[in-house]
Backbone:
């Protein structure tokens, strides 16, 4: 999750100091995950879809934290778009470019 989005969501859903703590943890974990995935062809860090950023509270489930049905639908669309861009299994991006001509 984009650190700014994480802070926005946590600011709306959690009181201090939990908001600060979990915001810091999310930023730190995302930074490490991004570094670990650098150079990976078939693995990516997907940030919150743009379509969810303006109305995150309206897209949460009754628990006020997890995505609700509409939030899950938007996440699924974003994931499907990312998966569609991946090369076929066993083919790296150089080979994919050569195959697609």
Residues:
């Amino acid at each position: 999750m984009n650190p700014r989005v994480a802070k926005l969501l946590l600011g709306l859903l959690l009181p201090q100091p939990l908001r600060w703590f979990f915001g810091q943890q999310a930023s730190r974990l995302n930074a490490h995950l991004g570094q670990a995935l650098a150079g990976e062809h078939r693995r990516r860090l997907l940030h919150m879809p743009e379509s969810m950023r303006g109305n995150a509270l309206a897209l949460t489930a009754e628990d006020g934290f997890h995505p609700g049905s509409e939030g899950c639908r938007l996440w699924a669309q974003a994931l499907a778009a990312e998966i569609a861009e991946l090369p076929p299994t066993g083919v790296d991006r150089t080979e994919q470019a050569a195959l697609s001509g």
Summary: The CA atoms of residues 61 and 68 lie 4 Å apart. The chain has a mean pLDDT of 78. The chain has one domain: 3-100. The chain is about 60% helix and 0% strand.
